[in-house]
Protein 1
Amino acid sequence: MPPSLRLTFDDGPGPSTPLLLDVLKDASFKATFFVLGKHLAAEQDLAVRMLREGHTLGNHTWTHARPGDLSADDLIEEIEATDALIRAAHRHAGLDAPHAIALRLPYGLQADDPRRVVLDRLARPHAGWTLIVDDWRRPAPDAQTLAGAMLDHVAAQTASGHDAVICLHDSSPRHDTRPATVEAVQLLLGHADWRDAQ
Ligand SMILES: [Zn+2]
């Protein structure tokens, strides 16, 4: 059986997201997008497309603040405002909103993370990953390098009997384009007949 692979994209939607959706559609692959509320607010039509094409929207907060930069109350306000936009996108798409929206905090969750109190107050788990790809770097590594890192990771996970959950970036808090990410995903998905985990 082919390995179970989950692709997740943080920090969008952005200018590269439509191209990425085309690549995913060609491969019949469903992904999860951990969106920023501030980007989603300007991209409701794109959010409708994402949902209608079978992808999942997760919450990556509104502004992508660093750990400790916001009070717990302010961070909860950001998360709830982003949840509300995600639910609105489902309504616009004519789909039922999910009971639970996955939440991934910016910069990931550290052991001594001051935001753990927020997760506890909201009684929500943190959506992590098994590999974070350094496509967020400026400049980003080339697509071959990114795809190679993902293939190596999937092979290692498969060999040890584990699924792979890969964190990529379809934009940035500054609304960057991500051409290398789009090309790397195309290379990865063209490499094998992956079974997506959804
Ligand atoms: Zn992020």
Protein 2
Amino acid sequence: MPELPEMETYKTLLNQKIDGHPITSILINREKSINVKPDDFINRVQNQEIKAIERRAKHLLFHLENGYVLLLHLMLGGLMFYGKEEEKPDRTVQIQLSFGDQHLYFIGLRLGYLHLLSQEEVEQELTDLGPEPLDVNFSLDTFLSLIEDRRGRIKTTLVNQEFLSGIGNCYSDEIAWHSQLLPDRKMNELNDNQKVQLYQSIRFVLQQATQYGGYMSMALFKGDTKTGSYNKKMYVYDREGEECQRCGAAIIKEELSSRKTFYCKECQT
Ligand SMILES: [Zn+2]
């Protein structure tokens, strides 16, 4: 499932493509992917300019001229492609937003959705989200006070969206590896240095992954070389059996609270 770096990459690239452009037509192939009747959706969205694209946690928010917002969550398996019809990947498209002869295709939306909401409804929807870990205001002190009463394990705490926004299965493992802590360590049993390290690793890993365009396997548009470059940089995620970059031991895959978890038994403690 795309996490903060993937959605941040989509945001940056889509801003360059469609910010300020009107949506000229809309195709809805899967009504379950939206939250209102297709006619209502089209009436409110068609001919609206995209005024801004924002990311919150694992969501993208497309702000329309009329004040409405398209709230996107790709969930598991969802992705996007932008381009001309002849460039479209051979995949089933659930929703298509057109900008003249260029189209934004939403693919693999099974659990994912594109909901049309007022600004108040969006705020309500996102109200339980924890702080953004890359926000300038997310300081070490903020983090330390946030984990004060936490008794959960590192991985399960990091993926909890009410604790922090935007971290999922992949980056929780990457962060744990980078901080040299085992993903099943209890938060309240970390010493002061380890807490500081965990904070620094959260910031470092998410920043680096964003800079490298995240891990999505499909380019957003023809000629896009940014999306997915982090795949090659990955420390542990999906690297079972491969050598640990730090100590050379084999990366282990295990289940932790029914989530697949990758780590190094030798250099994470
Ligand atoms: Zn290692």
